[in-house]
Amino acid sequence: MPWPCPTRKRELRAEYADTPVSLALYLGSYLVQAPEDMPWTPAGVLHRRFLGWTRQVERSKPAV
Q1: Residue 61 pLDDT more than 80?
Q2: Residues 42-53, buried b or exposed e (16+ Cβ, 10 A)?
Q3: CA–CA separation, 60 vs 38, rounded Å?
Q4: How far apart are CA 56 and CA 34, in angstroms?
Q5: How far, in Å, are 1, 22, 37 from residue 18 at the CA level?
Q6: pLDDT, tens digit, for every residue of 5-59?
């Protein structure tokens, strides 16, 4: 499963809820290293994986 997994995404959103720029900087540091580890991966895919998801609104699950 790609990093960060859905659970880690929720944890990161909660941890950085008040500081979204800090979350982007934290994930950006991983994005900088990613091409060295995955040189075959297109830049757009790496961006979506490491930073793109942070702008998406997480859908809440309906109450049961």
Answers
A1: no
A2: eeeebeebbeeb
A3: 32
A4: 21
A5: 27, 9, 31
A6: 999 999 999 999 999 999 999 999 999 999 999 999 999 999 999 999 988 655 5
